[in-house]
Specification:
There is one protein chain. This protein is an alpha/beta fold. The chain has one domain: Spore Coat Polysaccharide Biosynthesis Protein SpsA, Chain A (Alpha-Beta Complex), CATH 3.90.550. It contains eight helices and seven strands; from the N terminus they run E-H-H-E-H-E-H-E-H-E-E-H-E-H-H. It has a seven-stranded mixed sheet with strand order 3-2-1-4-6-5-7, sandwiched between helices. The protein is globular, with a radius of gyration of 17 Å. The mean pLDDT is 95.
Length: 225
Amino acid sequence: MINEPEKNCLLFFMKCPEKGKVKTRLAKEIGAIVTVELYKNFVLDLLSTLEKLGIDLWICFHPQNSREKLMGWLGRQYCYIPQKGADLGQRMKNSFLQAFDKDYHRVVVIGSDSPDLPSAFIKQALLCLETNDVVIGPAFDGGYYLIGFRANSFLPEAFEGINWSTNTVFRETMNIFETAKLKIHTLPGWSDIDTLCDVKNLMQRNQNTAFKHSKTMSYLGDFQY
């Protein structure tokens, strides 16, 4: 009997870009309207990256009533899945369960806070799940930008009791993995864009990369900070 190839799924967590609802810390520094436009470019650049990977892609959106608005903006070619749960942890956990219920073998979640996230990190994450139980990408602010599991190693407890939006998220999550004795692969660190300082670092590190031609960098080039 020939074994069927394993099915992979990428869950892209994003918010509907509305004033006062996205990147609120950054909005306090550069204004809500500019922040919404910048966030839109984050999403478009990340989708451009993800589409090239050839992996089944789910757009996991929040809030739940924003499907039509997002379809009107991004198009109807994507699979749109509402995030369900009272906090980020519950929403990620439920999205993983939904994907595994569709018989995916390896599932990875990324957020929309790192527009220049290298596609190589996502490829590495899926590859490493062949021989590891879990993969995680630490963010420099103490959170994580990616997390992924195999269907047979999924650990719902990884999303419970975490102090979300703090600098201890990664360490708390790793403690849960280690207690459960999971085999962990840790990706290179990367930066979320949450503050004006993060924006400046984004611009600085991409002066001579392919990302300098992105929608995000083009928008930032027209705006004076």
